[in-house]
Amino acid sequence: MADVFDDLNAEYHQLDATLASLTPEQWAHPSGAEGWTVSDVVLHLAQTNEVITKPSIAEGTPFLSSGAETVDGVVDGMVAAERGMPPADLLARWRTAAFATVNVLRAQPPGTRLSWVRTPLSPRTLATTRIAEHWAHAQDIVVPLGIPYPDTDRIRHIAWLAHRSLPYAFSVEGLPDAPVFCDLSAPDGAHWTFGDPAAPSRITGPAAEFCRVGARRVAPGETTLTADGPRAADALRVLRNYAA
Length: 244
Description:
This protein is α+β, with helices and mostly antiparallel strands and 244 residues long. The protein is built from ten helices and four strands. GO terms for molecular function: isomerase activity.
């Protein structure tokens, strides 16, 4: 795949161009994230990027234990504590934090494990999760506003993350792990494959739909994805583009 840090930077630039075009009314519009406006979504992205720019990121200590505290509850509280910033100030804050993360992640020494939500991640994996999160939240912004946001080949990182996270996704749902092969069509018509072609379970179809299922933006039944084999339907049901 292309360099993940370069692609993270490119994903930021695509979202930046969209955010720069928004009117004050659009910033205040309800987003696709329940209970959040477009401004709230951008604030959340700024806050989570700011975590990466802090020196403590290199400690490798997860933010949350496996206790009762939920990720959604934590981030919702963070947004509630700071919502209300003027759009221009919020955009500047997001830009500062977002573009700084590229250099922070790229500069980490080999073998580094960085603090993240429930498990330490390598710099490359954390960059991949940032692509996935910014892409998913971009959908929350542009879909309600009816703004075009073309998919790019950068979603290959997201599809890889979703497939790579399947063992974790199965375990969260109390299901045994199972090999699943994915044969996905890229935005440009190319084929991307993940996993062992000999696996008894197989998912085929558009990578864009696969990534949206993993982001929990659409249900599997709302897509043209096909699930063949004993565990493919389960895989689509538990699929996630994130690790918490």
